[in-house]
Design brief:
The structure is a homodimer. The two termini of chain A are 48 Å apart. The first copy, chain A, is α+β, with helices and mostly antiparallel strands. Among the domains of chain A are: 146 residues, Butyryl-CoA Dehydrogenase, subunit A, domain 2 (Beta Barrel), CATH 2.40.110; 302 residues, Up-down Bundle (Butyryl-CoA Dehydrogenase, subunit A, domain 3), CATH 1.20.140.10. Chain A has 23 helices and 15 strands. In chain A, 51% of the residues lie in helices and 10% in strands. Chains A and B meet through strand 2, helix 1, helix 2, helix 4 and helix 5 of A and strand 2, helix 1, helix 2, helix 4 and helix 5 of B.
Chain lengths: 702, 702
Amino acid sequence: MARLSAVNPKELPLHSARGGPIFFQAHALQASSGPPLSAANQTLFDRAAREFSVTDTPRVPPNHLKWVQDAENNPDQFPDGVVCATPLFNISVMRRLLDNNHIELRDRLYQLFKHPDFHPRYGLSLAEERAHVMKMWKRVAALGFMQNSLSAGTVEGRQRYDAVIESCGMLSHSLDIKMSVHYGLFGATIKLMGDDEQAARWMPLLERCEMLGCFALTELGHGSNARAVETVAKYQPSSRTFIIYTPTDSAQKYWIGGAFQTARWTVCFAQLTVGSVCHGVHPFLVRIRNDDGSVAKGITLADCGHKCGLNGVDNGRIWFDNVSVPLGHMLRRYSQVSPDGVYTSKFSSPDERFGASLASLSGGRISVASGCLNQAKIGLTIAIRYALSRRAFGPRDGEEVRLLDYQSHQYRLIPALATTYSMQIVLNDLHQKWHRQELGKQLHVWSSGFKALMTWHSLATLQEAREACGGQGYKSENRIGPIKNGHDVAVTYEGDNHILLQAVTKTVLPEFIRGVRNGVFQGHFAYLNERGALQRADLSVMDARSLEYAEIVFRRREGAVFAKLAKQLEKMRQSGMSALEAFNNSAIVVEEAARAHTELIMLELLQRRLKSLDAEGQHDIVHALQMCATLYTLKCMDSSTVFVRSGALPATEADRVHNLLLSCCKEMRPYVLDFVKAFGIPAHLLAPIAFDYVGHNSRARL
Amino acid sequence: MARLSAVNPKELPLHSARGGPIFFQAHALQASSGPPLSAANQTLFDRAAREFSVTDTPRVPPNHLKWVQDAENNPDQFPDGVVCATPLFNISVMRRLLDNNHIELRDRLYQLFKHPDFHPRYGLSLAEERAHVMKMWKRVAALGFMQNSLSAGTVEGRQRYDAVIESCGMLSHSLDIKMSVHYGLFGATIKLMGDDEQAARWMPLLERCEMLGCFALTELGHGSNARAVETVAKYQPSSRTFIIYTPTDSAQKYWIGGAFQTARWTVCFAQLTVGSVCHGVHPFLVRIRNDDGSVAKGITLADCGHKCGLNGVDNGRIWFDNVSVPLGHMLRRYSQVSPDGVYTSKFSSPDERFGASLASLSGGRISVASGCLNQAKIGLTIAIRYALSRRAFGPRDGEEVRLLDYQSHQYRLIPALATTYSMQIVLNDLHQKWHRQELGKQLHVWSSGFKALMTWHSLATLQEAREACGGQGYKSENRIGPIKNGHDVAVTYEGDNHILLQAVTKTVLPEFIRGVRNGVFQGHFAYLNERGALQRADLSVMDARSLEYAEIVFRRREGAVFAKLAKQLEKMRQSGMSALEAFNNSAIVVEEAARAHTELIMLELLQRRLKSLDAEGQHDIVHALQMCATLYTLKCMDSSTVFVRSGALPATEADRVHNLLLSCCKEMRPYVLDFVKAFGIPAHLLAPIAFDYVGHNSRARL
């Protein structure tokens, strides 16, 4: 190895630039195998570094306007012309089905996003990126679309709210998060948890952005387990105020979107203490900054700092030093404290109370799932369009082959496309039920399960899309990479996906166990009353493309996994473990059960929706969606060994499913361009490589 | 839905800030449901935006020095104290085994990285980030470690080269790529493809950085299929020069690391044309900038722009306009042109010639695999240490449970840890053979397969580590997120992983087919001569922890997948498809075959290494590595349905493997801290959450 000898310690400065403590030890660092750099080549380095420093790198990628204009003029102008297949369905009908409502509103926002203020920007400092997002939000807010949205308490208002958030999310995840935090978490909590008077007082202000807010639930030491937050709100009858304080370092509010500089108000979740009794977590409206931007009395704010994405959102930390909050600022729809200090609540158990106080999170989870599916759509549209124009390898003297004509490329993108379609259909159903407020217990289970599976699907799809575009997928102007970095966080926020899956099983399992005990299954599990027939069904004679095939397999899996879990928990309990320990030590089966349940629910919703569309006479659409649904279920069965392990799918069928999946990709291949067009994403929200990547990179454009 | 009415178009400016064409249409954008923002709340927005603009966000995360110092003083000071198990092995012996060579050199570089110039920086503009990397490179270069490294042509030199690159990669991927491009791609090509005189002339200059270079192979239209590059080098006997030119837009050199501003020279790969004959792709040394930074005559350079990671590297584009290159600048070890225009080559076939000219890429692939495993180590160390201190949920009135004591958390991190260990052992073997230049055809196959599987493993591990740390994993100062963004590119550069897998099968399949035809298998496939016994082996009576169990399953799988592929190709050829079409239409089996082959090779190398360590008497180390190897093979078998589909693993065994995997995670759990310590990563290359995350975030540190 290289021999090392002592070097003059003066060569390496010993003081940090920030004047901090010296801890760098100038060890002998020079290899004896050669002299240090000469003066001449030091100059080479310095010159290169200086060139970088003085180069003004444009934040908006070069030729942005130009490629968009070309793409609009020739939306299907691939450099070598791609042959479109005979249409399978009407693109605009499909688009309306997917986007579901407020189509015109969405398109108008997309139109606004052509304005230079909304052009993409990369390589921004933290301060620049945050300022950019504020500027965009201001422009969107000025249109007034959010007014009377959540406050109205109508289906139209809630749909309009979601349409605005979703459209903004197509442009910038930081923008939609910033808005969701303010209107959706801060606002919706006031709407849901405040009484009518409180909602009437504050909702119009916040919908007009005269009151900018954030949502202070998470603490440094308490993320997923929100019930354990430590912040205290102690009622003082003498002054008729709550005194809010941060008792420990781990109790600081952390990750609070908008808290560092944007928000003037927060809904703070704290342990309500009246006299010597703690009544659990309750929400309080607290000022954190004055309108002039100065920090409010008793509040300390700090920056959460740079993240690997989503830097337009100024996540912050908050400490409360005996902040005095008027009695009227406790959100009191369900629980209240009388002036003389008597606590009353509409809920008898702390569990119910806690559940109700986090109700706004269910809507948040649906929004997150929805936003993520939209990002998958952007990634897929770009990657598929690129794969239709980009060629690589081929016969020695012939034209190279289009990427999408490789089986491997089809396998990477087409099942993801079909899954995105299937999930969107299912999510629309949930979304509609949410808008109409038709769901009870299911809301929690479905929104949790869907959020987990849809965000993971989206992230995996963006990863695949990025890889499928090679280096171009890594280039920021082509959007996939930055979108992926920004949406990565979706799998752990608004409920960590693993925790959400555990919550699904926790909620559903008791019904299964009741069925086992009673010998008769109710509700969702009723199909298990016919489990003999379910087991006897001979898959080998069935059409594996049919959703009936998938239904049998999904049901067998769910039944088997829940049975395994129930038996395992029982055994562990008998061996002396606490219920909690048994559950934690079964976490993998617990998550498999949640996935099995959620995928079966999704399949059932999909089947129902296809039937209703068929009844409406939309046969072409049904045909196209059926193709997607088949591919989606095949992909599920092919992706995990649980189907075989649980006995739901014999090994020979697993092989058949795998081969059929490949054929179905090939069958869908001629129609993929139409499928991505029906996502309705305008050119300027796509990327140069989705159109003429050679023209965009041509020398003439330098 | 919201009704939309016309708005004064003056409200939205119609001209782009850049003076470009007007294409923003000021459609009616105001919702009738409310007035636009009032003057008062416009001020709110403007103020927030202004606050962002004027805030100076620090590029080095706050308290960087402080937490590092604390961590060094108390490396095991988790906030609530973690009990370490009785050691299973000697940590420093294990570390030497993993890092393999130049341990002192590595540690000295790590020591250098404490200097303020190397402190982490986030939120930099493109120009700032590039300048920062140049500054770091200059400091490292000044130590002279690279002198006489590759040029020496010795095992020590090649090992020293890799040790420097790997150590720099622990700090910054941009730094190691920038250095790899210069020394490893530019330099190694001159060493390998230049004759002795050329190497003697240029290698010392470039190792002393008096000649900064890049590697111009990829073109806009030609990435994976490098043989199709269009750039032309036409020999002119009259002037004894090559005239190099870029014939089309798709022929521009693209993604060339360092080409935009750093490099002064490039090795340009171009189609050599002598008279009217094209002899295929050959390398030429070409000046692209003068030493003063001005662009050389006939050269046009452009920036590839911002990427979603790795922005310290200035990837650039190059056009050649009849650039005149002296005869002596064609790298002529294997092929040359005489002054009067006679082409001669040591290779008879263009295929061999092409293979030889890209030999430097094989070394590059090993380096990439190695760098990625190192990143997985960083991610795992941080996530595992955090999971040992962070707690969430628990008994109602007791302490919350440590994350790593959840089965789900173990399942997410521990198999990844075991896989990283197993892969490192195997890669060291390949690396050593490469340093000693002992490999022939295997070099291409192994380096391709290992690169693909190891980079994907690394990316998946970083993703899991990021998610396992929740929001903290997303925070830049905790490194995992930025590292993931930077290393994402590894799965598509230096050979796209899918293309590499296809190359593995393409190379190995003929040997399998010969065996089928001859009825006797040779070499690697010789085990198939006993395929009767292989099929009859009763797995259910075997110890599924043993590597013999895995060996049987892996062999069965490889045999079955190759047999399926051979049969399928044969059938397609008989139905009239060309060999190329048949291969493309079988791409999924082709990739499954490559994975089967590579995983079996890895298993065999692992078994051999364990045996040799055992023979050396390193029983504790062998025991620990055996634990890793078992978990790794179980994880392989549990992750893909191919084992069951191919008949390698009966469904009942798949279930047994799955359950055993969970038990093995639990068994390894007490030792994980030692396993990550043996990676030998100093505190300052880890993250605050790997130590006392509460202390680091405490209010006292504001």
